[in-house]
């Protein structure tokens, strides 16, 4: 969908383990930071889209999550839309907010993602992920893994899935094995993704993990499920990120400096593929490129959904950063590292920045905005002008249930 909304301000709290903080306090802090960045007062907000995935399971807060956060800040009256769409919750909130601004309904709105996943009861945290599949399937979440195992020609072993680890790691492991068989991708190349993102994360003060890992350290880390080791899997976390969006008219009134425009944002759902080469990510990316009037060759940097290291390599391919089967070679070439042709996940990605699922989509927009405005510090991509965010969520069939791809551009208001 072609958009015409501008990012006026962004805010994000450090991702990590925040057992001493409430969901309201995390979200409120991110929103205050975004308002301050925009130079706006909370009373100027006209509507809010609040993205959260797991509060009902982890904290028990259901139904009015956004209103609870905003009322605690003294924000009332305005329309508040609560958005739940698995790991794509706040990218969906962002997409919907952009659409309403672009359509002319509002001049100043908020998109926010917030999540608390750490809990004293680990089973409750894992349970949040177990519900992001079709639970009316007689075999539940494990049927997704079984189908992927059949597609990959791999034996199916459910031991530990959903108990000692998120069932999504089993899903990613089967996808990884299929890619290895089809294209010769190696476990070393998967480790290169984790190592690269650890370097990027070391430069990000808001990242959950900031230690730099070598490929050898990634390979030697604790196994989770073959071929994945711990650093190849995104961690759970707590955190929040917020974005203030304004219309072109309001952007001119505010005199935005280094304005970042949302040129396109596409929200799509999975479907029953007719062809093996189809994917939700490729479909969403194609729509976004067409709406923005660009191609992958025009991108300066990318924030993509690296819920696992193999996920990043596969995303390279369906986002068009390389040809099918060449994702492993792309990371090995150094092209996706800072200083390379197309830096990917300069924030550290989900692997190192962390993955508080409801917050991850807006956090990608925070990173891209700062990159396009030259505010990314030690991880700045030189001359960044066009950024792409890719965020997927849930699993139905053999792919994501929901995916959002957005394109942001830095351009002067004429």
From TrEMBL:
Q: Which Pfam families match?
A: Thiolase_C_1 (PF22691), Thiolase_N (PF00108)
Report domain Thiolase C-terminal positions.
283-397
According to the entry, every stretch annotated as the Thiolase N-terminal domain falls at: 7-248
- InterPro entries assigned: Thiolase, Thiolase-like, Thiolase_C_2, Thiolase_N
Taxonomically, the superkingdom here is Bacteria
One function term, GO molecular function aspect: acetyl-CoA C-acyltransferase activity
Per its record, how is this protein called by name? Thiolase
Species per Swiss-Prot/TrEMBL record: Pseudomonas marincola
């Amino acid at each position: 969908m072609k958009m015409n909304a501008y990012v006026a301000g962004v805010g994000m709290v450090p991702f990590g383990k925040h057992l001493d903080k409430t969901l309201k306090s995390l979200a409120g802090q991110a929103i205050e930071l975004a308002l301050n960045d925009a130079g706006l007062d909370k009373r100027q907000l006209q509507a809010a889209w609040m993205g959260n995935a797991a509060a009902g399971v982890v904290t028990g807060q259901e139904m009015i999550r956004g209103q609870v956060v905003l009322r605690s800040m003294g924000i009332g009256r305005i329309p508040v839309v609560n958005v739940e769409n698995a790991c794509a919750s706040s990218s969906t909130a962002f997409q919907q907010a952009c659409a309403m601004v672009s359509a002319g309904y509002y001049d100043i709105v908020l998109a926010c993602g917030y999540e608390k996943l750490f809990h004293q009861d680990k089973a409750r945290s894992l349970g949040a992920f177990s519900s992001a599949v079709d639970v009316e399937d007689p075999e539940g979440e494990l049927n997704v893994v079984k189908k992927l195992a059949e597609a990959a020609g791999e034996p199916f072993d459910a031991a530990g899935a959903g108990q000692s680890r998120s069932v999504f790691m089993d899903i990613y492991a089967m996808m990884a094995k299929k890619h290895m068989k089809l294209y010769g991708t190696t476990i070393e190349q998967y480790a290169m993704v984790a190592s690269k993102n650890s370097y990027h994360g070391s430069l990000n003060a808001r990242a959950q993990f900031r230690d730099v890992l070598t490929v050898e350290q990634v390979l030697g880390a604790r196994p989770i499920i073959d071929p994945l080791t711990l650093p190849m899997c995104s961690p759970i976390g707590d955190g929040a990120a917020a974005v203030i969006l304004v219309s072109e008219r309001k952007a001119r009134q505010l005199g935005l400096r280094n304005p970042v425009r949302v040129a396109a944002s596409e929200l799509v759902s999975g479907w029953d593929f007719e062809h093996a080469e189809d994917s939700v990510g490729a479909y969403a990316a194609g729509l976004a490129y067409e709406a923005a009037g660009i191609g992958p060759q025009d991108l300066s940097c990318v924030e993509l959904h690296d819920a696992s290291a193999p996920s990043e390599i596969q995303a390279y391919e369906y986002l068009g950063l390389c040809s099918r089967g060449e994702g492993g070679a792309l990371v090995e070439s150094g092209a996706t590292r800072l200083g390379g042709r197309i830096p990917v996940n300069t924030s550290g990605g989900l692997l190192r920045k962390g993955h508080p699922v409801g917050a991850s989509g807006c956090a990608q927009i925070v990173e891209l905005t700062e990159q396009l405005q030259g505010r990314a510090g030690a991880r700045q991509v030189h001359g960044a002008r066009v950024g792409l965010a890719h965020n997927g969520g849930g699993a139905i069939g053999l792919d994501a249930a929901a995916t959002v791809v957005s394109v942001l551009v830095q351009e002067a208001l004429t």
